[in-house]
Amino acid sequence: MSRAMHKRFGLDEKSFKGAFEPLIQPFARNDLTPEEFLQKLIKPLLPDADPSKFTFLFNTLPELNYELLSFIKDLKQHYPTYVLSNNFGPVFPNYEKMIPLAEYFTELLLSHKLNMSKTDDTMWPVIFSRIPYKPAELLFIDNKEKYASLAKRHGVNTVIFLNNQQVVHDINGVLASKKPS
């Protein structure tokens, strides 16, 4: 989103991120409607702009990691795979148009549908109630330590994503350590 705003309006990424960061979790939890989100995001940055003209921001998506998705698809042949995503309601359908998510994931656990974000400590008991595994049987992978530390606090195995080679190695290591001898 910040690149799109820089490209179209010359806003520096730091200013955009400063306005965007405090809105991420409330929007992910569904505490803000798309209209409220745009109002709170755009007005401080571009006071004369009409926030309703910025719905194009919901179509800007991070690039998909197809190499990692291929690995996940292979994993799904042997293990259930879930995605826990801090996603925004109006953005998520764009992902669904890009890839057939059911080919990669057993279930999608999406913040905007759970009305929680990954920063909510209460999210983990909700996750545990939705999937038939004990915390110690789960592996949570994220690129942010703040999310992984919450999972770890609930007894979930964690891996921090740094790059594809590292995360595949770490996942395989965790899986090998969990196999019965």
Mean pLDDT: 88
Strand fraction band? 5-15%
The side-by-side strand order for the widest beta sheet comes to 1-2
Strand segment count: 4
Distance between the termini: 48 Å
Low-confidence stretches: none
Sequence-ordered SSE layout with sheet pairings:
Layout: H1 2-9, H2 13-28, H3 34-45, H4 66-76, E1 82-85, H5 92-98, E2 107-110, H6 111-114, H7 123-130, E3 139-142, H8 145-153, E4 157-160, H9 164-178
Parallel strand pairs: 1-2, 3-4
Helix pairs in contact: 1-2, 2-3
Task: Give a verbal description of the structure.
With 181 residues, the chain is mostly helical. Helices cover 50% and strands 9% of the residues. It has nine helices and four strands. It has helices at 2-9, 13-28, 34-45, 66-76, 92-98, 111-114, 123-130, 145-153, 164-178, and strands spanning 82-85, 107-110, 139-142, 157-160. The chain has a two-stranded parallel sheet with strand order 1-2. Helix 5 links the parallel strand 1 and strand 2. Helix 1 (2-9) crosses helix 2 (13-28). It is elongated and about 65 Å long. It starts with a helix and ends with a helix. The relative contact order is 0.10.
